[in-house]
Write a structure and sequence with these properties.
Radius of gyration: 24 Å
Structural class: alpha/beta
Protein name: methylmalonate-semialdehyde dehydrogenase (CoA acylating)
Number of helices: 16
CATH superfamily of the largest domain: Aldehyde Dehydrogenase, Chain A, domain 1
Keywords: NAD, Oxidoreductase
Number of domains: 2
Pfam families: Aldedh
Largest sheet: 7 strands, mixed
Strand order of the largest sheet: 15-16-17-14-13-19-20
CATH topology of the largest domain: Aldehyde Dehydrogenase, Chain A, domain 1
Organism: Pseudorhodobacter antarcticus
InterPro entries: Ald_DH/histidinol_DH, Ald_DH_C, Ald_DH_CS_CYS, Ald_DH_N, Aldehyde_DH_dom, MeMal-semiAld_DH
Shape: globular
Strand content: 15-25%
Number of strands: 23
Bound molecules: nicotinamide-adenine-dinucleotide
CATH class of the largest domain: Alpha Beta
Length: 499
Amino acid sequence: MQELSHWINGRHVKGTSGRFADVMNPATGEVQARVPLASKAELDAAVVDAARAQVAWGAVNPQKRGRVMMAMVGLINRDMEKLAEALSREHGKTIPDAKGDVQRGLEVIEYCINAAQMLKGEFTDSAGPGIDMYSMRQPLGVAAGITPFNFPAMIPLWKMGPALACGNAFILKPSERDPSVPLMLAELFKEAGLPDGVLQVINGDKESVDAILDNEVVQAIGFVGSTPIAEYIYGRGCSNGKRVQCFGGAKNHMIIMPDADLDLAADALIGAGFGAAGERCMAISVAVPVGDATADALIAKLIPRIEKLKVGPYTAGNDVDYGPVVTAAAKANILALVETGVAQGAKLVVDGRGFKLQGYEQGYFVGPHLFDHVTTDMDIYRKEIFGPVLSTVRAKTYEEALGYAMDHEYGNGTAIFTRDGDTARDFAARVNVGMVGINVPIPVPLAYHTFGGWKKSGFGDLNQHGPDAFRFYTRTKTVTSRWPSGIKEGAAFNFKAMD
Ligand code: NAD
């Protein structure tokens, strides 16, 4: 069986803790590799080396750091097929979806090519007599990222790219469920010219996360994962004096107004609700049709579409709409929540409970489910299911529908489908959710905007990628300078390149 490693000081390093986690093939239920789980001592040693390497990297001019990013873009594109295959093998998502995962990460690396522009400071000429004032954005030193299983390329790249482009060293603790792609990305960064030690990938579980949280050298932590862990990391990291941003779980509502194009809305719900087996933080898990006529018509359009969904392993190629969920425990949890929905009185209009895939009986496949007449007190409404289960909550009015999105504890993404600009504009202005789609079901902002949820979906005050990332991974120093006298002779007039 393959034994995975850590990536330390520019090479693969075997774990020394003696602890391992199994990396499963979710389609077959077989163990395909084991990943070492780092001890506190291993993590701390990697941080010491990273801090040493950061000194020189932080002094490299930002234009040159941008060139490493440019090379990285080329390498990721070169290896797209290989990365997508490794990603699908451990995560289970389809190959086109895995390529999307890599692509959305790659776009943030493209954005980071622009590091020199992003890191330009501010300058006030003659703030007083003979006094100039200027601000610089300086790297923090060592930053760390802790990432979830569901986007094993995109989210590590969202963290590594900006942190490194800003001149930091970076410790990545990827999900132990699918650690191969983050290790491959670290190899590519080395090939792109990143100096050894500046990027360390430390595999592990709670022990290495706690070691990051308590390590005095680590200045900043970016986390993405479930809300209970986000809250834990935010609390402990902040109380240890670190800069922390944590992005948590979600329950994304899509409101369907009576004037919406229902075919468009139904198609959107299928992709956003069941794509990647519902294991996306921006998945739509609640449909809120306004008016019973809209609800009845929408359900009638959804049922045949859901019944046609093809569930299978990524190796079946284009014949598959979505793959297995990530673990046996995730499957059991999803099916248990479906049972609570039935027991608490929701109407299960499409029942995927009996789903079996011949030849893959041990895989973690879950059939698609559609609930109607879901109410806000039910477990399937309150909890994040993170599986192929779409709930319908019927609203009588627009205000009632808006209230559902507003009152839910999560606030990651939301969408409205309507032909009326006034309703859409009102929704975008009032809803207390971080990312809003108007006739767009999964409104994931592009790399040059920022990504982040509100309420229990996001903790901290800066978002991921876009300009916020360059603020998160730097600190501002402001200099006030006066030169009472100076020698004005001996100026050099040759035109010299900065590198
Ligand atoms: P998770 O919270 O189980 O794990 C995330 C990371 O935390 C992993 O690296 C894991 O090793 C670590 N971890 C797990 N338990 C820990 C503990 N007790 N102490 C310290 N560290 C611990 O999340 P997951 O199952 O990998 O990912 C799915 C979750 O992530 C969903 O809730 C989803 O909504 C959320 N998510 C959110 C966003 C966003 O941007 N808001 C994006 C993707 C995923």
